[in-house]
Write a structure and sequence with these properties.
The complex is a heterodimer of chains A (about 170) and B (about 170). Chain A has about 170 residues and is an alpha+beta fold. Chain A has helices at about 10-20, 90-105, 155-160; strands at about 30-35, 35-40, 45-55, 65-70, 85, 110-115, 125-130, 145-150, 165-170. The longest helix of chain B is centred in the N-terminal third of the chain and has 12 residues, at about 10-20. The chains are: A alpha+beta (about 170), B alpha+beta (about 170).
Amino acid sequence: MQINVAKTAQENLIDLIIDANPGKSLAANQFTAAAPAAITPVGELNSSIVLSAVVGQGYGAGDVTFRYTRLALTSGKAVPVTSVQVAEGDDQAASLAKVITALGILASEVDASDYAAPTDDTTPGMITLTPKASSVLYVGDEVVIELTLPAEAEPTLAETFTVTDLNGFDAAQ
Amino acid sequence: MVIDRTLSGPEVLVALINSRNPGKNLTVDQVTFGTPTPIQDHPSEENTSILVYPVTGKGYGGDPEEFYYSRMIGNQVKQNPPAFIVIENGEDGVSIRNKVAVAFNVNPDEMLISDAMLTDIADSQYRPSGQGTTTCVLSGKPGSLLYLDFNSGYQLVDLVTPEYPGAQ
């Protein structure tokens, strides 16, 4: 199931649980979740998470452990994103927002570090994203994303060469 | 501007553009040229228009720009054309062609130097010998950036052997 970046991490987890348990219902106020834990992989399953029922909200007291797959940060796109174009003057927050959008991930689930702004269109910057230790959705290594500026618009020939009537050549002596 | 015959057609045309636009420094890798087109009645009397296309990423972008200039006619390339050119007995066509190009200061890649006749010169019946002579024709190659084709004018010059009267 694809992560829906318009939803919270918890809502995505609920969707995953319901997807595997058709006909059941689960709402955010009906449970609390412990931090997910890495497990010895079972097939594609690499994580477990314990949900505890909130008594009085529809389920009796008790815990249930789900095993599921958290994604590597770069695995959400068919074509890996390693470089993101930002605008001149973008600060870390603005650059991060563009990186988050380009990678199609939830900002709440990652930490950003090692930010360096690009200095010109030939000198890229960078930003490092790391899945939060408590992330419900992502796991794995940090990713370093290159930040680039758009190439400066090239002048047109018409703007530069204003004399277009060139006359011609002179005969050799 | 006198054509530097050692430069290619595009190099010469770029030099012409720069010479008319002081301070600019267009280079041949920054543009490609369309086909030069004969024109008439241009306000400043140039005989040719050409579209110049920017090569994206090389310094210029946007649309192609049209320039107007005058390509040379075969009989205008030299102020005082030589009456004849001396060739050696047995001299091959390539050598003769280069000799003519130097004498007329033309770029042999842009100018037809009597191709058909020089081919014929390889045949002994046309090659001048003794006091012989044959005529060479110079005209722009079709599509040349620098010279107009045969139909617009051409230059004739005799090729003679050393034994030809006056050749020495």
